[in-house]
């Protein structure tokens, strides 16, 4: 079933029909812009004469990036609503204010954070955002703790697992992250200068590790994870904004999966930003800040989980178990991080961090990402913590 799609002319009447939004914006004086620049959805910002605004997100019945030739159920907005419900419950300050789901129209209404920046955009511009990496680490910790057996009863978690299956979106990730970059596939593309680097990814030793990580993605139903937590799914605050430095959005890939998948998405995307800064010869302090993001996120995550452990749900889960759980999550994060970086170089839906570079610099950055990511995937069992995470392996020649 396809529900009628909104456009800039119909949004005001839609909002006028929503009594619950009467206090949020004045529906009689709205100006509406469609601002969706992601791969999947319609996103509208509606602003009233007093300057109050709100965001409407509606799922399209196809993949926006590709077009109507790739149909995709509008039901993914239900998964996003489940994600926001959990985030509001467990990490309310780290998501935009959520005004709920209109299930009939497949529309979510959210706080307008247009004054903030998408983190990837800020990173591309060379802007440092102190505290953002810490806040997303806390986000992952709070939602993971609250939605897993660490923080909830097994009965509640089992019910949530059953209610949160998201097979269509998970299948996109299975294909785009874990399968297609390692075979000939029409979704793939890369600079000719990278031929040898990309084909080198198809050796048996690496493919065994990719398979192990894919199996973990397929089977480890640990917590309700975001499922697509790259730097394009995070807003960062303008300097001087009170409260958190970052807020997480775009939760339509949410499902019960491995906690390290979200942390890995962040690590892999920090690597892309780090590679961009390196080939652009960004100031040393900025490159050092980027190199430290993985540690900031992990340290905030670990600290938050340990803080909350005092109230953990099942006392049969021992302190030693927690140490082992954290080690496993970290190793998963390193492995998934490598694969999330590789997919943005080789597969569909590339990242602006590299795509907006000139040819020689783009190839150099991409080569550095592939080489580094591979060491993460294959060496993850030996990477004890962020201090041991291999930094960017930059090629000798950039130009
Ligand atoms: C077909 S959707 C392509 C990508 O966009 C989303 O942001 C996810 O990363 C997905 O893999
Ligand atoms: Mg997204």
Write up what this structure looks like.
- The protein has a 5-stranded antiparallel β-sheet with strand order 1-2-3-7-6, covered by helices on one side. A 3-stranded antiparallel β-sheet has the order 8-10-11.
- The protein is globular.
- Helix 9 runs antiparallel to helix 10, helix 9 runs antiparallel to helix 14 and helix 12 packs antiparallel against helix 14.
- 46% of the residues lie in helices and 12% in strands.
- The chain is α+β, with helices and mostly antiparallel strands.
- The chain contains 14 helices and 12 strands.
- It folds into 2 domains: 101 residues, Phosphorylase Kinase, domain 1; 272 residues, Aminoglycoside 3'-phosphotransferase, Chain: A, domain 2.
- The chain binds 5-S-methyl-5-thio-alpha-D-ribofuranose and magnesium ion.
- 5-S-methyl-5-thio-alpha-D-ribofuranose binds next to helix 6.
Number of distinct helices? 14
Number of strands: 12
- The protein's oligomeric status is single chain
Named once each, the bound ligands are: 5-S-methyl-5-thio-alpha-D-ribofuranose, magnesium ion
Helix-strand makeup class? alpha+beta
Strand content is 5-15%
Can you tell me the CATH superfamily of the largest domain? Aminoglycoside phosphotransferase (APH), C-terminal lobe
Give the SSE order as H and E letters. Answer: HEEEEEHEEEHHHHHHEEEEHHHHHH
- Gyration radius, rounded: 21 Å
Largest sheet: 5 strands, antiparallel
CATH architecture designation of the largest domain: Alpha-Beta Complex
**Span of the ends, CA to CA:** 52 Å
Fraction in helix: 40-55%
CATH topology title of the largest domain: Aminoglycoside 3'-phosphotransferase, Chain: A, domain 2
Identify low-pLDDT runs.
none
- The CATH class designation of the largest domain is Alpha Beta
Output mean pLDDT. 97
Order of strands, main sheet, comes to 1-2-3-7-6
Please tell me the total number of domains: 2
Shape category: globular
